[in-house]
Fold this sequence. Notes:
CATH 3.30.1330.40
Amino acid sequence: MRTNISGGSPYEPIIGFSRAVRVGNSVHLAGTGPVGADQEDAAGQTRRIFAIAEKALAEAGATLKNVVRTRMYLTHTEDWEAVGRVHGEFFSETRPAATMVVVAALLNPAWRIEIEMDAVVEGAVPSP
């Protein structure tokens, strides 16, 4: 069974995406930017992404403890350590498989980071 989780973006139906999708016990969180934290530094933007991610994961019946994979896209190489430290604040014990790459740009030029996550949840699938 598939459950689409909306993040409330008006672009979701236009582009055809969901903030997260749960299929069975797997949850896939789309690339998430630091919406509302455009003026923050890389660490602040990363914390904002985690707040957005936690909400979407919760709606899918998951938590950050269920995350098994992250992909981090940075626009500035020098931000890797600040972003990594925030990632570690949330995942120091869980330690998901993680990838960090530098990209030329993200959709919003003010964003320094975007993160994708995958989670695996044990137990029953929530009803929509």
